[in-house]
């Protein structure tokens, strides 16, 4: 049991599933709030996956000669793409987060009678 770790995010997933399964008995605005919070959290997770850990990527080619740093190319403009292995999970997080935010909007509008 030493290798077993508890991830607190599972409690959030379980809470969202409980709210969704009991949505017919709960106020619609509470359901919309929980679904919207889950969507925002997924968008946050997607952004964290997209930008990589450790800050922005280094964009210059650099070499060292006799102890001095020499930049070989000017920095490119615009945002850099993440590592190839991070694009898939980030896009999945973004799509699911946007779907949940749209669903929260629909539930909230239906709850106030629009």
Structure, explained:
The chain has 114 residues and is mainly alpha-helical. The protein has three helices and two strands; from the N terminus they run ααββα. It has a two-stranded antiparallel sheet. It starts with 8 loop residues before the first helix and ends with a helix.
**Order of the strands making up the biggest sheet:** 1-2
Structural class: mainly alpha
Question: What's the Cα radius of gyration?
Answer: 21 Å
Gap between N and C termini = 52 Å
Oligomer: single chain
Q: What's the helix-strand series?
A: HHEEH
Q: Give the overall silhouette.
A: elongated
Reconstruct the topology from this structure.
Blueprint: H1 9-21, H2 28-51, E1 62-65, E2 68-71, H3 84-112
Antiparallel strand pairs: 1-2
Helix pairs in contact: 1-2, 2-3
Q: What key phrases describe this protein's structure?
A:
3 helices; mainly alpha
Describe what is shown at a glance.
By secondary structure, the chain is mainly alpha-helical. The protein has helices at residues 9-21, 28-51, 84-112; strands at residues 62-65, 68-71. It is 58% helix and 7% strand.
